[in-house]
Amino acid sequence: xxxxFFPKPKLFFFSFVVWAILTVGFWYMVGRxxxxxxxxxxxxxxxxxxxxxxxxxxxEFLWFYIYFALVTAIFAAFWYVYAPHPWANWxxxxxxxxxxxxxxxVQVSVAINNWRRPxxxxxxxxxxxxxxxxxxxxxxxxxxxxxxxxxxVVVFVGxxxxxxxxxxRWRTAMNDHYMSNWPRLRKIEGASxxxxxxxxxxxxxxxxxxxxxxxxxxxxxxxxxxxxxxxSTITELPIIGEIPAPLMYAAIFWSLFGTVLLxxxxxxxPGLEFRNQRVEAAYRKELVxxxxxxxxxxxxxxxxxxxxxxxNYFRLYFHYMYFNVARSFYIQSDNIFGYLILVPTIAAGKIxxxxxxxxxxAFTQVSSSFQYLVNAWPTxxxxxxxxxRLKAFEAILKGEDLPDIDQRFLETAQRDGEKAALVK
Length: 424
What we know:
By secondary structure, this protein is an all-alpha fold. Helix content is 80%, strand content 0%.
């Protein structure tokens, strides 16, 4: 699954994590200030947030773009020399481009959050003191938002186009790898579906989950300082009272609660999803045999196989029912949780409407990042079931024992083959 696309996958991903930690740490400790020597200094700590599209090409941002390109080139050059791979351009440079796009998307959220305070403060002033705000001021702020949004749309569309090709290249790499070993893999139940469908689904799901995880980490890095700074405007939390950095601690608590809750409630879903694919494959395989052999796909056999399909689906529906109940209640509660913890501050009139919008946005961003497992759990369940199916291929290629369920299907297929030989 990975060796076909990435050079020495285990070492590659480990080196990536180490390199990412080192380069990010170096940037915040030393790297940002190095740009000053090239005429690209970082913004002062007490500087006002930049509102508008200029946020993306300030001197500090231009220096970051150069820094990102440099550390990516060093990492790629090492792997090009140490372990050349036919798909290295896509797996290394392509992944780096997706990471950069993810970072840019997070910064779009920061830029929009910077815009919220002046815009909503202007709205509040216009509503409370008629005539104090000119229409041109509001139009100007809306135009600034449109500039940021247009830039975000261009980057998003370009990224999705590239990601589509990235996923298909990964599928191509897996397809070529498995087909080169097809004589050894063809006896696995549902082998054709695993190569034709599961490879695409696996590449697409892993890419989506990986980008979501990186996005969550980058969002935390970008918004935690913002949320910490905005905590100074909060007087107290309901029930708890006054605590340091109340917004940050409230976001962490609420997110951990949701993650643990859904992980416990949905613990049985991966196994059920995997079994669901197996019974579907067994039913489909018998029907395919029935197209070529008159003695296959007979009514009793088909009835039994379809009964297995129905039984597993009904079981899956039941377990998803209570999982969705818990997930839906949590998501709906999440929509008002930010307002609940701000009630004492709002009632005391300690913040403006613009600051309220900034706090809610930053709180939502941080809370959603900590809720990565909550939001991604259904996709993770699907990925685990796909992984189990492709894992049988890996076991064959490595000379390992097949999982029990695959072994049983293989033994059944062998018995069917022996019966067919005797009939002939």
